[in-house]
Every structure is written in structure tokens, then in C-alpha cells.
Amino acid sequence: MRVGTRIRAVALASVGLFMIAACGGSSGPSVKEGGTLTYIIDADAQTLNPFEAGDLPSVRSFQFMFPSLYELDKNLGVIPGLADGMPTLSSDLKTWTVKIKSGAKWSDGTPITANDVVTTARIQASPNLDTDAAFDWSPLTDPVNGVTAKDDHTVVYTLTSTFAPFLAVNLLGFIAPAEVYGKIDPAKMRSDPSNDHPTVTGGPFLFDKRVPGSEIDLVANPNYYAGKPHIAKLVEKVITDSTAAAQAVINGDVNWDPEITAGALDTVKAAAGVQSSEYPDLGYYDIRFNDRQKWADGSRNTLFGDVNVRRAFAYALDKDSIVKTATAGHGTPLWGDLVPAQAYYDANAVVKYTQDIAKAQSLIAAAGWTKGSDGILQKNGQKFSAKFYVRAGKPQRIQAVTIMSEELKKNLGMDLQVTPTDFKIFYKPIQAGNFDLAFAGFGISADPDDYTIFHSSQIRPENSKSGNNWTGFVNPDLDAAINAERTDLKDTADATFAARKADMNKIEHILGDNVVVYFMWADNVGMGFNGVNGVVGGNGGAMNYVDQDRNVSTFAQWSMANPK
Amino acid sequence: MTFYVIRRVLIGFLLLVFMSVAFFALTRLTPGPPFTTGENPRAHQELIDRRMHNLGLDQPWYTQYPAYLNALAHGNLGDSYVYNRPVTELLQQRVPNSLILLGAALIVSLLIAIPLGIFAATRQYSILDVGTSVVSYVGISIPSFVLGIFLLLAGAVWLRHLTGGDFFFPLFGMHKSGIDTLDDLVWHMVLPVTSLSVLSIAGFSRFMRASMLEVLHQDYVRTAKAKGLARRTVNYKHALRNAILPIITLVALQTPQFVSGAIITEGIFSWPGMGLLAFQATVDRDYPVILGVVMLVAVLTVIFNLLADIAYAVVDPRIRY
Amino acid sequence: MAEPIKEVTGFQSLMGGAGVQQALDAEEALRHAAAAEDLVVAEVAEPSELGFWKLAVIRFLHHRTATISLGVLMFIVLVAVLVPIFQGDLYRFQDYRHPFGAPFQFHARAVSLAGVSFSIPWTDHLMGTDELGRDEMARLIRGARVSLTVGLLAILGYVIIGGVLGSVAGYYGGWIDNALMRVTDVIIAMPFILVVVAVTAAFGGVSLTVLVIVIAGLGWFEIGRLMRAQFLVLRESEFVQAARALGASDFRIIFRHIIPNSLAPIIVSATLGVSGIILLEAALGFLGYSIPPPEPSWGNLLSGYEEALLRNQAYLVAFPALALVTTALCINLVGDGIRDALDPRQR
After folding, report:
1. Which residues pair with C129 in a beta bridge?
2. Alpha-carbon gap, residue B234 to A305, rounded angstroms
3. Which residues 6+ apart lie within 8 Å of A310 measured at CB?
4. Which of A213, A251, A443 sits opposite B272 (nearest CB)?
5. Nearest CA in chain A to C285
6. CA C340 to each of CA C40, C71, C234, C344: distance values in angstroms, whole numbers, following the listed order
7. What secondary structure letter does DSSP report for A140?
8. What is the pLDDT of residue A479?
9. Contact B39 A240 (CB under 8 A)
10. Cβ contacts of A242 on chain C, cutoff 8 Å
């Protein structure tokens, strides 16, 4: 183990080193200065305070206003943003040191220093701030002293253990000015009046004005460290109707729709003058089984506690067709909990179940279930009948569940009733362990760590009040693999990647073999541009790297085709 | 009379208090908490429990109510759970937009419906009458979203294609960004107001027709005709003035509801009004916003009700409460 | 009475206006009372061969639009009740690998009749298939069931709740009447969407029961007020006074004398109300509160309205929309016909 090992770009797309992308505006004869870029959000932003923003419109609003330490490049590799180079690790791999570029300024002229980085982290780590960020920072030895400023341009993070996810989870976020946010009591952050209009910002654009419910206006930041943006003004409009939004991009009324719904995507793609792309979202849907033997309150036996029943379920379905129909062709079928948007995704490391109805039927019979006179399976007096929970108001999910419910009834004799449920009460029976199966989704981060979802210590409600392991599945090998991927931090990026990948492959295999959950698909999100130059498509056209606040400095390189 | 008014005011006040209890209980008893962990695998239940506790939401509703009533009495509607801004601020931002939209729709529909109803009544069973009837009935048989979406696509998309981009209506919003003129606002209002009006014109014109017919068959109208007064004088001077009174009072009682907006139309046309906010607040269980809107509507309804009753009692000596 | 603002406004979908409506209803009731008195006098003075109701039916049948609408309506109801029996599970039979089949795809099909074989044009899916490959026409017809059932049951709820409470309030007057009026004020001010959300959540999802409970529970007041107005006026009318003088009990007076004479406006209001309820069910379906799959209803068939138009798949929503508008229109025209037929002014 060498002292002062440097982590070069932790490859999230594919193996290999990446050159640090040259920041700074590219100028050439085709770049026109000025103009207004209008883009769409589908609901008004709830807050413009980056510490409190929890909904997508809010993130899409503040993303232009605050710089971040690290960003993602178009191959989804982590690259420095405000940071000067990649982090350095101590010999025991528990201390991370990050250097910051000098010369960066806030909009009020004061320099961006390590103090800002430290203050931002401390606010997030504070137990008094009522967001989940505090739990993200729990690897720190101490919420205050675990992150310190060694000098004006060096930040030191001390962790309690070797924690591989730290870079992608903790260092990819925004930096806020200590001058403003350090003065606010974290407990009162939520209702601070400045939430409506950030006063001091440091990203490529500055806050100008806001019309509640309608639009938010931003202007270019001439002092942006990565170079002054070519575009003079950003206007964010609230369009609540997704069809109107798609039409607006097609017509050129707006220049950018960052989230085109599947229903409108084909129409947008076919339209002339619109540069569109479809990219896999960082999130997935799956069917959560209750893998326990009985419901948590003991009131009845679970239907899917037997692994053979789950395997029968998997064999009975034609996942590719189901996903294709339900998502209108805009979804990637999944067999594991890694999605194509993550570097660790490996289509070969997972266990696939191709449709084989005969096999499904024999598996279910072997599990002791036989068809009753009404065509529904039954065993020891219990019918194979359960509610198939799905969130109400989500047509694609409901369609998928409807298809599966009908197919399983026809082919196996399972009576699973489609039960669209209000979002607010959806989680209650599932988190209490009193369900049989439910169709749910998770939004995930760039890091593949899935500890809270699959580790047995996170089983809710038995082991953890807060865990997201609702299946109740316990497997020591799985736990060991998860622990390994969290701590497998090595000398070099490649070694870390290789080690963690091996762990992840093991995890995928266990998950697939036992059908702990039945993975469904990852959404493809659509993005459309009309009249914007300088937008470079990511790997395979993916725009993941500019979605939300993942690569803020790239906005400085965009320009309008016809500025007015 | 004065005694009647005082009595009604007191009853109205009590009614409002009772309503506040009922609605408060309704919000707290609706299953589903305002905050859930949702689809974020890094969300934590402890945080949510703490937030619920800080807001007093883990106590039974009757324990929470007194604090609410106290705040309400001081004009404090609380802060939205979702936006974390004072509810009064949100209302100030959104309610005027809904009032503009629905007010304009009301005016337009009345301007068209009243004459239509009068003509239908004065020419009963004529082609005009029957024709207006059928068209009105079609109007009230169309679901609002069918009409709204159709108008949006027709006016903002298809019309644009047809005229090669020369003439069309906007796809969304109240204003073009940065522009604040009246004619820009009107241009944005054409489609949603049309959508809302069509639905109302039908109803109002039928109502006007019925009311006018009612009056035309009264004895005093026959007397006026027998006296030899010109038909026009009879119709407009005598009959209309009486026939219009119910409409006016009906309209007066409908207006408090404009405060709560029109969910479907505002959503389709991306109009930043109260309807969408109120609907979203209900789904999100944003109690302060829900209660704020509901109580505002209730207060206005009670006030307008009282005014209408007084006006009616003054005007018509037959009615005695 | 008409319902001027049909839009599901923020929290109130049905008409408000307690005070003025009272006055209007009172006037209407006065008219009917006058007419009823005429009727009693007429019957005593000169027994006519045709009773009030038979006369009304004849007048209705003379009203051409209303009769045609009634015919169409009966056809719709018949289809909605009978055809699903023959089609069975066709509405849920999915061919999800081949969705969005176009409508009106005819192909030749050989048919033999009495030894002679010839080909006729035949189509598997007259109205096309939906996003899961299910037959649209079967779903349309089955959807009619839900919409019509909700309409009928909810109206029944209106009439029962409103009728009972309204008559009690109108007959006994005094503080009972006052209390009821205050209760209706609260009901009118109730946030409709909140109640929908609350009841849906309490029942664990939308179902026929939930829809009927919510719609009937929040909409009975109009018929209630109507009934109340009738009673207020009729209880002072001469024939009731006469009956009382003869020693008839309250019960007999209510059921034998007052109710039959107050039915007319109730019938009209109820008929017109059904169309409003059907449209309301569609609006709720559009907002996401419809019967869970695979059961279709006109509301959830229309929920993808906008996207379907954008993707040039108008057939998916054109048929349900047409069915909805036609049904609502027919009901409204029939109601109008009934109103005219029962209108005592036109004798």
C-alpha cells in the first residue's frame, strides 16, 4: 500500500483511465454569444435551497446555480469540477483529501474556498438538518470534526472505515456559500425566506427572478470559474401538461425538455429540427416479494416464501415483451439491480429466466400447489390469491401489473388482483411486512452500493426501523458480498473497480438465483433540444451526465443556434 | 329585519367554526401521512417521525385542533408542508390567477347565455328555441377534459400547421416569458376560457330560458300585454328585470368557488392557478394548504349566501324565513 | 335544474347556492302546489278518463326529440346489459405482444349457408385494440356497465337520502329544518377531491362502492332541498288541510298526498342528475381515480386521451368519448322531455 495513493478517475463506464476533460468554453466560429434558453419543468420547484430540495423540479432549478466538487463526464466517469484533481487517500484508506481550484468566485466576488466545502458538508451532516443527508455523511468520524479545512484550498475527510461508495455518493454534490448558508440554523433551514430566491450563487448562472407557479429566470455568471457561459439567460417554464411540453419543444417554443414522457417521445423523435436522445434512467422497477414464511404479523402464510414458487413466477413470464408493451419500447428489461446507467452493469453476470411455462407449472406443483375447481391454485386450504400492489396514477406500472396478472392467471392459476394504491398508503403494509407482492421502484445513485435494500440488517420491520429491505430475505453469502463491495477500496481505480465488480457479480448471481425480487426494467428518459448547440451526446447518446446536477460545468459550453 | 341579519351572522359564524372542525378532522383522518420514505433508498424513517412529531401530527386530531383554531383566529394559516412557505403567500400568488380565468369564463358565458335564453323563451318552440336547446344540451354533455384537450390541440397545434405557423394560440401558461401586456394575457386566455365557457353557457342559457318563461306566464305580464304595451317593452322592461334576479343571485353564490380553481382546465393549459395547487396538496396531504383553501371558500360562501338571502328577502315580500 | 359549471372545480363539482335555491324551489313548489290543487279539484268536479301521469306520458311521446333519445338510451342499456353476457371475458383477454390494432380492419371470410359458400367481410376487432391488445368494443360495452351502474346507484342514493331528509325537514319545519339546512351548507362546502382521496384510501382503492358512496354522499342535497321545498309548501295546501281535518295520520298524509304531488320535479332533477354523475365518473377516471384494471369504465378508457390524440391513435378515445357524450345527451334530452311533459303550466 503506497502512501499518498491517488485515486484516478474511478471508472464508472468502462475500465481504463480517463483524461480529465478540459474545462473552459470552447469557442469557434460557430458559437454565437447571447440568447435565451427556455426549458421545461413539469411542476413548480418546491424550494430553491439546495440543502432542502427533494423533488426533481427543484433540483433542475438549482442545478445551474451551485458548483460541485466532482462531476460526471459524458462516459459517466467521475471528473473534477471545482476540485483540483481526484482525491488522495491516506495509507489506511480512511482519510480522503481533496484540493480545490483557486480563482473560483461566488457571485458577490468572494472566493470559493475550502471553508465553503467544509461548511456545506457540516450542514448536511448536522443531525438538526431534517433531511436524509445526515445519514449519507454517517461514515464520517464526526459530523463536525470529520471534515476539516487544512488550508484555504484543501479539505480533509476522515471516515470510520474504508468506504468505497464515498466518492460517488458524497463528493458529487453541490457546494453552497458559507457566508449565506452557514449563518442559517440548520433546524430552520427548511423555512428560511431565502429559499425562494438564492442570493449568493457560484454556478454558471445566477438567480434573477421568479414568477411563482410559472417560471424562474436565471442570468449568466460572468465570474464562473469554468468560463463565462455563452448563453445570456435561462428561463425555466412550468408546463404541467406533458403533451403540451412535447409540442412546445417540437414547435421551438422552448429549447429543451429534459424529461419527455414515453408517450410523447416517439413523436418528438420524429419531428424535424429536434435533437433528441433517449437514455437509461438511474432507477429501476421490480416486484418485491415477501420472502418470509409468514406475514410479519403472523396472520397468514406468504405465497412467495418458497423459492420454487418465485422461480415458477419467473419462468412463467416473457419479461422482454411485457416491458416492451408496458413502456412502449422505452424501457430496458433488467435481471439484476444494476442498471445500464451504471458502470458496474454487466448483462452477462445476471441470471436470466426465459419463458418456459411447462417448467413453471412443474415447479409450482413441486411446491405443493394444485389447481382447484375454480382454476385457482390452492394448498392446504389456502388459495393462491393476493393483492398485487402497485402505485396508483402510474399507467406504465399498472399496465405491466395487469399483463402479468392476466398471464399468471391463465398459465399458472395464480389469482393476483391488480390493486392500484395511493402513494401515501402504498408503503404501509409493505414496510410492515404484511403483503405478498408489490410493484415498486427505487431511484438510485451512480454508485452500485445496495446495502440498504438487500442487507439482512436492513430488514424492515424486524431488524431496522428505517431499512429498505422489505423482502425479509436472509442469506449470509449475500451479506458477505455486500460488505465486501462496500469496503473493497484498493490502490488504484482499476483495482477498486475490479474488486468491487467481482463482489457485485456475486451479489447479482445470488439475487437472481433466489429470485429475491423479480426485477422488471429501467426507464429510458427522453431529452429533446431545439436550437441549442454544443450539447454533446454522452456515451451512446446518453444524456445522463447533464441530467440534474451531475455535470454543471458543461452548461457553460452550450450556445444558442439563433440567439435573440 | 335587523334581527334576522344578526341571527344569520351568528349562525354563519358558528357554522364556520363547525366546518373548521369537520374539515380539520377530515384531513387528519384521511389515511396516509404527509411524509413517506417513498422511492428513495436512502430515506430514513426516523427523520420522518421526527418531523411529524415537530408538527404535532402524531397526536389525535382533537388534540391538534385547538392550536389550529387559535392560529386561525389570528389569521395565521400556517406553512405549507411541501413548499415551506406561508399558506397566505401561496394563496396570494395563485388565487388571483384562478379568479381571472374563471371570472372571464363567467362573464363570457353570461354575455352569450343570457341573450340566448331570452330569445329562446320569447320565441318558445321556434326553431331557434329548439336549436339552442339541443346545442346547449350537447354542451353540458361533454366531459370537461375532452373539450379542453381538444381545444388545446386544435388551437395550439393543428391550427398552427394549417396556417403554416402564422396564426395559433399558445400551448401553455399565462404570459409569454418577460411580457406583461394585457393582449398577451388575453391571447393566452382564449383557449381555456372557451373551454370553461362552453360548459357553462349551456347551463346558464337553459336556466335563463326557464326563468324567463316563468316570468312571461305571470299575470302581470299578461296584464301588460293586454294593456297594449309593445312586446319589446313588455319583454325587456318588465319581464327581464324579474327574470334576471335568480341568475344574478345564482352567479353571486357560485363565485366563492372560483377561489379553489379548476383542476382539469388549469392542468391542461398549465395555468398557474389554485386548482392544481389544491389538488396536489390533497394528494400530498399538505394539510395547511388544503385547510387554507377550504376555509377561504367556506368563509366567502357564507358571506355571499347571507348577502343573497338578504337581497332576496328585501326584494320579494313573499319569502319569509 | 341545470348545472351551470360542469368543470370539476377545485373542490366543488355540483352547484352551490343554498339560499337562492331555496327561494327558487319554493317558487317552483308553489306552482306545482297550485297545479296539484287544480288537479284535486278537477278530479272531484269532473272525473277524467286520463289521470295526470297518463297525460304526461302522452305528452312525452309527442315530444319527438325526447322519444328518440329514450329509444337510443334503451338501446344502450340493453346492449350494456346483454352483450357482456355473451362476450364473457373478452374484455380482459389480452394480446400484449401485439397492441394498438387499428379499427375497421376488414378481411374476407368464407361462410357457408345452406350449402352455398360465399365470403363476407369480417373483422376481428371492429374498434381496434388497446395498449394491451384487448378488444376495444368489448371494453366499451363492458365499460358502459360501470358508468351506468354508478349513475343509477348514485341517483338512487340521492333520492333516498335527499328524499327522506328533505321531506322530514320540510314537513316538520322548525329546528329540524334549520339543522338540515346547516348540514347541507357543510356538505356543499366539503372539498370534493379530499373526500374522494380519503374514502379511496380508507377503502384501500377505488371501487364501485367507493364511487357511489362519495358521489351520493356529497350530492344528495339538491334533491333534498327540492323535496323540502315541496313539503314546505304542500303541507299548507288545502287538500292536506282537508285530509288532516278528516283525521289522517302524518304518515298517511306524507305518503298518500304529499309525495305523489312532489314527484314531478324530483324525477326531472334525478334524470338530469344521472348524466352529471356519468360525466363526473369520467372526470374522476381522468384524474386517476377509476376502477382498477382489468375492469374497464368509460372514465379509464379516456384516461390516455391526450397521448392517444398526439400519437394519432384517436380511435382509442373517439369511441368512448362518443359513447359518453351520446349517453349524457340522451339522458339530458329525456329529462327535458319529462320536465315538459310534467309541467302543469302547459295544459
Report:
1. C135
2. 83
3. A289, A291, A304, A514, A515, A518
4. A213
5. A393
6. 21, 18, 21, 9
7. B
8. 94
9. no
10. 306
Matching residue, cell 433546524: A187
pLDDT at residue C300 is higher than 70: yes
Instruction: Provide, as residue numbers in chain A, all residues whose Cβ is less than 8 Å from the Cβ of B31.
Output: 422, 424-425
Query: Contact B250/C4, CB-based, under 8 Å?
Result: yes
* Cα radius of gyration (chain C): 24
Name every residue whose Cβ is closer than 8 Å to that of residue A423 and which is 6 or more positions away in sequence.
A391, A392, A393, B32, B36, B38, B283
Mean residue pLDDT across chain B: 82
Cβ-Cβ contacts under 8 Å for C197 (sequence gap 6 or more): A422, B30, B282, B283
* B40 in contact with chain A, both atoms CB, cutoff 8 A: yes
**Interface membership of A393 toward C (CB under 8 Å):** yes
Whole-Å CA distances, B259 to A307, B97, B230, B266, B298:
56, 9, 44, 13, 10
Q: Is A372 on the interface with C (CB under 8 A)?
A: no
Cβ-defined contact of A418 to C132 (cutoff 8 Å): no
CA B304 to chain centre: 13
Q: Any idea what DSSP says for residue B262?
A: B
- Looking only at the bridges linking them, the beta strands covering A36-41 and A233-238 are parallel
Helix (H, G, I), strand (E, B) or coil at A416: strand
| Residue-level pLDDT at A506 | 92
Q: What is the pLDDT of residue A347?
A: 84
Q: What is the ipTM of this complex?
A: 0.83
List the 104-143 stretch of C: residues with Cβ below 8 A of A: 131-133
Which chain C residue has its CA at the smallest distance from A328's CA? C131
What would the 3-class secondary structure string for A436-493 be? CEEEEEEECCCCCCCHHHHCHHHECCCCCCCCCECCCCCCHHHHHHHHHHHHCCCCCH
Contacts of C among chains (3+ CB pairs under 8 A) = A, B
Q: Which three cell numbers stand for residue A434?
A: 404484511
Quote the DSSP letter at residue C255.
I
Contacts of B261 in chain C (CB under 8 A): 9-10
> Cell digits for C159?
333520492
Task: Could you list the beta-strand ranges (E) of A192-337.
Answer: 205-211, 215-220, 233-238, 256-260, 275-280, 283-289, 331-333
Least confident of B70-79, B172-181, C143-152: B172-181
Residue C127 has pLDDT above 80, yes or no: yes
Contact at CB, C204 and A419, closer than 8 angstroms: yes
Distance, in Å, from the CA atom of B132 to the CA atom of B134, rounded to the nearest integer, reads 6
* Nearest CA distance, A516 vs chain B (angstrom): 17
pLDDT in tens, A104-153: 888 888 899 999 999 999 999 888 887 878 888 888 888 888 899 999 89
Residue segments in chain A with a per-residue pLDDT below the cut of 70: 1-30, 538-541
**What is the per-residue pLDDT for C35?**
54
Cα distances from B11 to residues A330, A549, B14, B22, in angstroms, run 59, 56, 5, 16
Asked if pLDDT for residue C45 goes beyond 80, the answer is no
Task: Write the residue in C204, C293, C310 that is nearest to A243 by C-beta.
Answer: C310
Picking from A468, A470, A471, A523 by the largest number of B CB atoms within 10 A of its own CB, the best residue to mutate is A468
Distance CA B120, CA B212 (A): 9
Q: Does A15 touch chain B (CB under 8 A)?
A: no
